[in-house]
Amino acid sequence: MKRGHLLLLLFLAISVVTSAIAVVHSKYRSRELFAELKRLDRQADRLDIEWNGLLIEHGTWGAPQRIEVEARKRLKMRLPGADEIVVIKRNGG
Question: Which of 4, 28, 35, 37 is 20 to 30 A from 12 (CA-CA)?
Fold first, then answer.
């Protein structure tokens, strides 16, 4: 064989090995990123469930009935009687 053919064969062999290593690395990185994506999907699902729970809790705590119960219990508030209500009329416009 000629020297040029040997150099070409050596270059092609090095190229094939380099390409194979690049393919293996690419596949490995792809698997790493896919595993991270799945982990982040699970985290997003957990956060979504927590968010929905917080929305329900917010609705519960802010419900008028709950506020009235807490006002009566904690602050000893009550509805005024008819004789305790004063109406103030504004003159003019």
Answer: 28
pLDDT at 93: 58
Q: How confident is the model at residue 90 (pLDDT cuts 50, 70, 90)?
A: confident
Residue spans of the domains in the chain: they are 3-84
Backbone torsions φ then ψ of 63, nearest 5 degrees: -65, 140
Phi, psi of 47, deg, nearest 5: -65, -35
Furthest-apart CA pair in the chain: how many Å? 118
Distance CA 57, CA 39 (A): 27
Using CA atoms, how far residue 82 sits from 20, 76, 86, 88, in Å, is: 89, 19, 9, 15
pLDDT tens by residue, 15-60: 999 999 999 999 999 999 999 999 999 999 999 999 999 999 988 8
Q: What is the reported pTM?
A: 0.57
